[in-house]
Design goal:
This protein is mainly α. It is 71% helix and 9% strand. The protein has helices at 25-34, 45-55, 61-76, 81-91, 95-109, 114-119, 127-139, 142-198, 205-240; strands spanning 3-9, 15-21, 38-44. Its main location: membrane.
Length: 246
């Protein structure tokens, strides 16, 4: 079912903006009238922002931890959800966080649950995150659930940082080793082998293997490196996809 962006006025004449799911634009307007709103404009959300949304920077794990902690603290202080979202939006220093929060707040103001507003943004909010938020809404203890979520995300980020730090030194050593091997195969080995060739002696098996590797590096080294770099880039992109974050 498509989503529609709308702008409408309520009974007091206040402008209300948000998104609504409907089979057609006419259906969206009928739903708005059923809520007591007077629709001013409606447009298909995918046309208005589909391409731009795909290019927008998604929320990182650090962004999600900050956002969740801020909302948890404000909700624990008994602020309404709308006010908590607005306060967090004002404190957001990154444009992509503000853009995401602004859309969530608009949907909440339009009458959607927070979990529903998050579900419309699967690139930013993993499925397990949305499910726990929904459970918190159903139990009436959203503040505590978000507090636990913030703790979990922060602990996970800290553990990931430690693991990455532990792998930095081995990764550097491995990269330097690969560079040295490539240099030996591409430059040193051919010069050494040429001395054997001039002596017209049969080369040992190990030497022939090294020579074959040297030829491969010189002929296909650049192409192989580019293919490996592309494979790593695709692998990282796949890990960041919404399905991989569930």
């Amino acid at each position: 079912m498509p989503s529609f962006r709308y702008e409408a006025t309520d009974a007091l004449g206040k402008i209300v903006r948000g998104t609504i799911d409907a089979d057609s634009e006419r259906g969206a307007r009928n739903q708005l009238r059923g809520r007591g709103l007077l629709p001013l404009s409606t447009s298909l959300a995918a046309r208005a922002e589909g391409f731009g949304a795909s290019l927008r920077t998604r929320l990182s794990d650090a962004d999600l931890a900050w956002l969740t902690r801020q909302l948890a603290s404000l909700l624990a202080a008994s602020l309404p959800l709308d006010a908590a979202l607005s306060a967090t939006l004002e404190q957001a220093e990154k444009k992509h966080i503000a853009a995401t929060l602004g859309g969530v707040r608009d949907d909440v103001r339009a009458g959607h649950k927070l979990s529903t507003a998050l579900a419309a943004r699967p690139r930013d909010f993993p499925e397990i995150y949305r499910a726990l938020i929904g459970a918190g809404e159903e139990s009436g203890d959203l503040a505590q659930v978000m507090e636990k979520l913030a703790d979990y995300i922060e602990e996970r980020n800290a553990l990931r940082s430690k693991v990455l730090t532990a792998f930095i030194y081995p990764a550097v050593v491995a990269c330097v080793s690969v560079i040295i091997v490539i240099f030996l195969l591409g430059y040193v080995v051919p010069q050494v082998v040429s001395a054997f060739s001039q002596a017209k002696q049969e080369l040992p098996l190990l030497t022939r293997i090294m020579l074959a590797l040297s030829d491969y590096v010189r002929e296909w080294g650049v192409a192989t490196g580019a293919a490996l770099a592309a494979a790593v880039a695709l692998w990282r992109y796949a890990l960041r996809a919404p399905a991989a974050r569930r």
